Fold this protein.
Amino acid sequence: MADDLFKALADPTRRTILDELTRKSGQTLFEICSRLTMKHQLSLSRQAVSQHLAVLEAAGLVEARREGRYKFHDVNTAPLRQISERWLMPAPPAQDPEESTP
């Protein structure tokens, strides 16, 4: 799972998509494409954005839900929390320098 997560985060376009979904969750493909074009001057096809979303979904960073004929995309931060908990453990308490010298 960590490999998929790092692969998804390695691409700057996918990070931009995550930024936009963080600002406004529940966007359709059309909304995401519009924001990428207007705010970031990224002129990607709908198919390209859809493929980026598929990679983000495979990594668990984006969840899609259907309502009628619309598909809404939401950010899922759980995989990022799992990674941070894996490596960002609390530091052990500092020892008193007087106690460590014999």
